[in-house]
Amino acid sequence: MTVFKDKGRIRKVWNTITFRRDRSQPEKKMSNVSFTRMKRRKPVILAGAALAVLIIAGFGGSHYVKANTVDFYHLYMNGKLVGEVQSSGQVQQLISRKQQEVSEANPDVNMVLKTGSLTYERKSAYKAVPDSEATLKKLETMLTAQAQGVELLVDGKVVGIVKDKETADRILKSVKTRYAPEPEVKNKALEVSALAYSAVKTSETTKPSTTMKSMQIVEKVTTSEAEVKPEEIADPADMYLKLIKGSVKPTKYTVQEGDCVGCIAQKFDISPQVIYENNDWIQDDMIKVGDVLDLTVLQPEVTVETVEHVTETELIEPITVIQKNSAMRAGESKTIRIGKSGKKKMVYKLVKQNGYLMSEELLGEQVLEPSVPAIVMKGTKVIGEGSGRFSWPVSGAKLTSSFGKRWGRQHKGIDLVGNKTIMAADNGVVEFAGEKNGLGRCVIINHKNGYKTVYGHMSKLSVKKGQTLEKGESIGIMGNTGHSFGTHLHFEIHKDGSVQNPLKYL
C-alpha cells in the first residue's frame, strides 16, 4: 500500500484554492446579488479544487509505487515450485560451482550434474525481497550427479565400460597396432615377423619385404553411452589387456586314430602353431593315439585379422648340362662351365589372426635374373642318372604350404595340390616305395647325382624299389595318408644328404 507523507502540503494547497482573496484590493461589502452569485459558484470551485488535489495525489503516488516495485522470479524444477530468486544468473552460478565440485572429486570420470527441467516465472511486487539464499540452498539439495560412461560392445555383448568414446577408439586402435604397427614404426617389426615366417634366411637371399594389405577386427564392435557408477568405469590399460587376452580356459585333447596336427588344429579352429608351441615334445609332426595334447589358447575378446603380402628374393640354382663323351671312361667327368645362380621374386599372401598364421598362398613368381647352367662332360651315361633340373611333380600345381618354418616348426618340403597323378621330377632309380611314419605311402627317387626327391602322402604307388624312371613318368596317385590334413603331395629335394628348398630348383 502507498503511504503519503505530505498531507499537510496538499491541505495547504486546498485552503489556498478555496479561501484565497485578492489582498491588494480594499475590502468591499458585497451586495446581495454578488453574494448570491458567490454562493452559487462555491460548489463548482470546491469540486474543481478537489479534482485537482486528486490528480496531484494520484500522479505522485503511482510514481512512488513504480519506483519501489521489485522484479524477481519463481524457480520451478520439473514443474514444481522451488522458491524465489533475484535472477536466473544466481542459479547458473550454483550449477557451475556444483559441476566443478563433482568433476574435481572424480577426475577420471565424466560426471554429469542432473538438474532436471528448470524453468522461471517472472514476478513483480512492491518492495519485494525474494529469499534467494534459501531457494538456492534448497535447490542444491535437489541436485544429483551421475557418472557418464561408454559401453564397449563386441557382437552385442558388453565387455566393459570406459570414460568416453575417444578412450574407446584409442584402445581399439592400440589393439590393432599390436598386430599391425603404425607405418612410422612398422618396418622393423614387420621385418622380424617376416623372418619368423620365412624358410631359410642366409646371405644367399635378400631380406623379405612385407606390405599390409588389410587389417580388421573380425567381430562387430560398437559403443553406446550409458549412465553408470564411477567405480564401473575401467582403466584404459585394463580394458586393453582384457580385449587382447580375454579368458584362458585350459583345453586338453587325447589323440585318436587318424588324427594329425593339422586336422586337430582344424577341428578346434586354432593355428597349428598353438599346438607346436604348447607341446614342444612333438618332433617331425609325430603324434600317436593316446598322446595328450595341451590346446590351451588365449581367447581374446576381439580377433584382429591381417592380410600381408610378403615378397622374397630366392636364388635359382643352376642346372647341370651333361655332355656325353664316349672317349671318357665311365664315372669320369670334366667341368666345361661353372653354373651361376639366378634370382626370382616370390610373392606370398599370409592371413593371420591375432598374430597367428592361419593360411598362406603363393601368389606368383617373377624371374629377375636367369641362372646360367653348368656344363659337365661325362664319359658314360649312367642309367637313371638325373640332370639336376627338376620339373614340377604335379601338373597344374598350386602351392599350399612352402618350405621352412611354418606354425613354429620346420617344414622340410613344399605341399602341392593339382592333378592327382604324381610324376618323377627327374631321371632316377626308385630307392624306396612303401609306408613311412608321418609320410604315409611315399616314394624316394635317387637321381644318382647327389640329389634325391621324396613324394609323400600318396594314396597309391605305381612303382617298385629298383625301378629306373624317366622324368615325367607316373609314380602314383596323390592322397591323404600319414600325418596329413587333406589330399595333397608333400615334395622334398635333398642334395648330398641336406634338405633343400624345392622352389630353388623347380
Molecular structure report:
22% of the residues are buried. Strands 19, 22, 23, 24, 25, 26, 27, 28, 29 and 30 form a 10-stranded antiparallel sheet that branches. This protein has 4 domains: 7-67; 73-142, no CATH class; 162-206 and 213-299, Membrane-bound Lytic Murein Transglycosylase D, Chain A; 382-506, Distorted Sandwich (Glucose Permease (Domain IIA)), CATH 2.70.70.10. Helix 1 (7-19) packs antiparallel against helix 2 (32-67) and helix 5 crosses helix 7. It is built from 9 helices and 30 strands. The model is unreliable at 1-7, 17-31 and 182-204 (pLDDT under 50). The chain has 506 residues and is of the alpha+beta class.
Briefly characterize the structure.
The chain is α+β, with helices and mostly antiparallel strands.
Which regions are unreliable across 5 or more consecutive residues at pLDDT < 50? 1-7, 17-31, 182-204
| Largest sheet entry | 10 strands, antiparallel
Shape-level CATH architecture of the largest domain? Roll
Assembly level:
single chain
- From the helix content, strand content and strand pairing, which structural class follows? alpha+beta
Overall 3D shape: elongated
Query: For the terminal residues, how far apart are their CA atoms?
Result: 115 Å
State the helicity in percent bands.
25-40%
- Proportion in β-strands: 35-45%
CATH topology of the largest domain: Membrane-bound Lytic Murein Transglycosylase D, Chain A
In DSSP terms (H or I, runs of 4 or more residues), the helix count works out at 9
Computed Rg? 51 Å
Count all strands and give the number.
30
Q: How many discrete structural domains?
A: 4
Domain LysM: 251-295
Keywords: Signal
Protein name: Peptidoglycan DD-metalloendopeptidase family protein
Domain G5: 302-382
